[in-house]
Amino acid sequence: MQAKEFGKEHERKIVLIPGNMMSWRQFENVIPILEKDFHVIAVSTDGYDEKTEFTTAEKSAESIEKYITDNLDSHIDLVFGESFGAATVGMLFNRQKVKVDSIIMSGPQYMRLGVFTGLIKRIVPGNQYRLTQKIKSGRKSGKMPLMLKLYTRADDENMLKMFEAMPDNITLKTLQNCTDEALRLYEVIDKFEPDQNAKVSIWHGAKEPNMKKALEKLKRAFPAVEDKPFEGMGHGDIIGHPEIMAAEIRKFMER
Hints:
The protein has helices at residues 31-34, 57-71, 85-95, 117-136, 146-152, 156-162, 172-189, 212-221, 242-254, and strands at residues 2-6, 13-17, 39-44, 75-82, 99-106, 199-205, 226-230.
């Protein structure tokens, strides 16, 4: 993985973990706001750092744990995970190999869709890979692909802007492994012992699909979890509103 640090003069530390197909630059608009008050560590996880391939969320968590241990005194005040990055956040928090005080899981959608689950596993990675190649070659359109639109219900402009944070080295195998991990995420979370004192917030767009089941399972694992919907937004849209995102992070950390 790669890590970029900002606001090192501040004591409180925030780790930002991007979503699938994204690098640390997914957060480049919110970092200048957060670094005024926090030591911000934005990472590109395995598979999206221009030199490795993604395997599992556990392995990704191990890479981040090593960085925190070696460089950040083994303690983080908040870890924020966007979309698939929330899987790694959940692993970090449950493992507590390094001390993580609180987490925000943004858009941790429940991906198992009954008889359609096998179809997702077969077609989604290939569609994602073709999209990365189209963007890499400069062949962009002004609209999101229909399947991505149905999955995210996100604003086209916000999502297309985020594509600029996509690294060049994404492999089909990385995307296949990410899909496998997304499909097994809640099987792993179901095995977590309920943590009554966990400081956890679940962010999602109010228009975002596949969150009802996710919230049910997360509330079992983290009974005191905060449910934070954003009206008028879809999956990932909060990233396109950095002032709101930063303000809500501050509010959560102050409570």
